[in-house]
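Collaborator request log, item 7. Partner lab (contact: R.S.) asked for a structural prediction of Beta-lactamase family protein to inform their binding assays.
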Amino acid sequence: MNVLTSHVDAGYAPGGVTVVSRRGEVDVDAVGFADLERSAPFRADAIVRIGAMTMPIVAAAALMLAEEDRLGLDDPVDLWLPELGNPRVLRSLEADVDDTEPAKTPITLRHLLTNTWGFGLFFGGGPSPLRRAANELRVLNGPPIPENSDSPDEWLRRVGSLPLLHQPGEGWTYGLGADVLGILLSRASGRSLEQLLSERIFDPLGMVDTGFAVPAEKLDRVPPAYAPDPRSGDLHVYDPGAWGSEWRERPTYPSAAGGLVSTASDLLAFGQLLLGGGRFGGEWLLTRASVSAMTTNQVTVPVPRFLEGYGWGFGLAVAPSGRFGWDGGLGTSLWVEPATETIGILLTQRSGMPLRSELYRDFWNELSHQAV
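Returned to partner:
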């Protein structure tokens, strides 16, 4: 697309790929280079780190288990996650970590899917005892890099030792709920998270390049990832890609909040599943009711500034127009617009592309203009 070309030419990112599917007609456009040295073109089949775009994929798997009554949307999760049983809630953000009250309600699957379970990333505000305790226990995951030191069980044990920020269902806190959800799905299914996603989503959709690690024979398709310097804006290497990539080995802790890698074609298949109401290639993987719930706003509590003007379904954001999807903090985006039967995918290797970034905004403005 011309939009991506203009931003690449302006130095926003070395390169990227876009996919636009409208009423079944698909256009793929790879632009620019794989790295700052311009050693190779950016490939249309590049394997990129999709960050928080992992969340809707994991949410879809959760709904599959819910359809089979292996999990209930409003059932307490402490049957499978005893670490979260009898939660305590901080009386105020500034309170000491032992200044708590009992939770009014247990944590449920619905709470995890909607980021209302009670704990997550801190936005704004200064230092607080809970923030310091969370940092000391290393439970606040930053930008995704495969974590090889702690198991999911150990991470959840540490999370469960802390009080919640707010009562379940009475606030919106981003990020960590998806990681808790990944552990829940693994325990409830008796599979590792990657096995579950492969059996339920990747294999049926033909997502052959999606996973928590990249096999050796595909590492040449992993471009470097870059992050801008907060002062100068200059790009520096976040993950070197190829044989130097952190994603060359399977992590001990597969992050359901941001650990997957994928490709444009794989993500298109996932977008087609949601646009099709749960049907793909003649097979129903999800019911229409589940997809409708997933892609409809489920949240009535206030949301952070970065999400203002949007709702939140199960694992993804919902625009007032009905468009739904989510972005990855390492430079990726997938949204679906049912009214025009459009799927838009934007993949770059520059981090820091929030919901309202110029590139993202220009990309969707152009798609909307073309639809008209």
